[in-house]
Amino acid sequence: MSKPIVSIRNITKRFPGVIAVDDVNFDIMENEFFALLGPSGCGKTTLLRMIAGFETPSEGEIVIDGQDMAMTPPNERPVNMVFQSYAVFPHMTVSQNVAYGLKVTGTPSAEIKTRVSEALEMVQLEHLGGRKPDQLSGGQRQRVALARALVKRPKVLLLDEPLSALDAKLRESMQLELAHLQQSVGITFIIVTHDQDEALSMADRIAVMHQGAVQQIAPPDGLYESPSSRFVADFIGKVNLFDGKVTGNRGKSINVDIAGLGKLSLPFDGPVPNEISLAVRPEKIRLSKQKPSGKGMMASGRVADWAYYGDTSHMYVETKNGLRISVTIQNESRDTVDSVDVGDSVWVTWRAEDTLPLTE
């Protein structure tokens, strides 16, 4: 069992007129890829900057590798940071960029040469050491910034939106590269991102932040399949959210009345509320032109709109009560998109187990 490498203890950060981070508590483990995820202004970058030492907490403490960082300046912390802009020196070669931090701290030249070579090999740039940054692609410059951070051998690597400047295809490729790199170097990575796909594809655990507070911390599948609140369900991926009234309960199930869907019986374990929200992921819903047989949730309506994304189509079904239900269809064959059109009468159905009851 790994031990915590970073402990965030009752951390609050106030700026004039605003609380940027509000009484946050959690541990980040050794060799973990940890993501701070949330919308702009939620406090995730401020929290990362406090770990790095660029901001001072108003309250609480940050412990890194067993040491309280309160009196430790940024350059003496066992962390290094990769910024959104990469900030590589344009007048230096790749090797010179990577060696810069070691030269500043007076590392012997023989050791610098060895460590630079090792760092470039980690990011697969050993053959480009003599090039200038303007001779590199965006992805290669990003790897130079990573090598420059890794060459200092930090115990924790901090990444502030490191992929946001890349185009979509390269960003997806670099997500896999970063995940593989973290596993190979065996140090803790903490990444800040507002991109749900980025966090889900790379992180071992994700902390979702909103208005300065942590809403939920869980592995990617736990966040997606078992969100703790409407905010988390809505922020992580696409979701249908329905508001309903609880009309009764029996054992570990409740009866819910939802306008446009009718009365539903759902698995539920916990204190029974009067009102509840139900979340259903669009890919869990099946769409057909004929009324389905068997058990499950179902509703009839018409296709009000649809969007084509190549591998999937996203359809919106409107019930006679005006309820709008989104459905994701996998385009498994070339003629899938021709089977349903706007205005068609359809049925939607899904399993009761795929309905997530939310009380917050």
SSE inventory with pairings:
Elements: E1 4-15, E2 18-29, E3 33-37, H1 44-52, E4 59-64, E5 67-68, E6 79-82, H2 94-104, H3 109-122, H4 138-150, E7 156-160, H5 168-185, E8 188-193, H6 196-202, E9 205-210, E10 213-218, H7 220-225, H8 230-235, E11 240-250, E12 253-258, E13 262-267, E14 275-280, E15 286-288, E16 297-308, E17 312-318, E18 324-330, E19 345-350, E20 356-358
Parallel strand pairs: 3-8, 3-9, 6-7, 7-8
Antiparallel strand pairs: 1-2, 1-4, 4-5, 9-10, 11-12, 11-14, 12-13, 14-20, 15-19, 16-17, 16-19, 17-18
Tell me what the structure shows.
- This protein has two domains: 4-234, Rossmann fold (3-Layer(aba) Sandwich); 238-358, RNA polymerase II/Efflux pump adaptor protein, barrel-sandwich hybrid domain (OB fold (Dihydrolipoamide Acetyltransferase, E2P)).
- 23% of the residues lie in helices and 36% in strands.
- It is built from eight helices and 20 strands.
- The strands form four sheets. A six-stranded mixed beta sheet has the order 6-7-8-3-9-10, sandwiched between helices.
- The longest helix has 18 residues, at 168-185.
- It is globular.
- The model has no long low-confidence stretch (mean pLDDT 88).
